[in-house]
Amino acid sequence: ATRRNEDYLAHINEVGHFSVLEHASALPRIVAVTHPQNLPSQRVTARLGMRNEGLTDRYYNLAMRLFVVER
């Protein structure tokens, strides 16, 4: 996790909110990346209503499948 993410998660724990999903639902845009063959994780993104944006190498310097949801 990046330092910014670590700070965010520490803040959630500090103020007594333990559901990251609860907080994430308030964000305007959420992204997820999976290994291209990781079908179980891709099914989770589909259940969350995320759309498949195709392959990207923007994260981890690897070809990953990108999923996005915008509120």
Would you kindly provide a written description of the structure presented here, covering whatever features stand out?
Helices cover 37% and strands 27% of the residues. It is an alpha+beta fold and 71 residues long. It has a three-stranded antiparallel β-sheet with strand order 1-3-2, covered by helices on one side. The longest helix is centred in the N-terminal third of the chain and has 12 residues, at 3-14. The protein is globular, with a radius of gyration of 14 Å. The chain starts with a helix and ends with a strand. The model has no long low-confidence stretch (mean pLDDT 84).
Model regions low in confidence, pLDDT < 50 over at least 5 residues: none
Order of helices and strands: HHEHEE
Largest sheet: 3 strands, antiparallel
Task: Please state the CA-atom Rg, rounded to the nearest Å.
Answer: 14 Å
Strand residues, percent: 25-35%
* Count of DSSP H/I helices: 3
Q: Which strands sit side by side, in order, in the main sheet? A: 1-3-2
Report the principal-axis shape.
globular
The amount of helix comes to: 25-40%
Instruction: Please give the number of β-strands.
Output: 3
Query: Averaging pLDDT over every residue, what do you get?
Result: 84
CA(first)-CA(last) distance: 23 Å
Q: Structural class of the helix and strand makeup?
A: alpha+beta
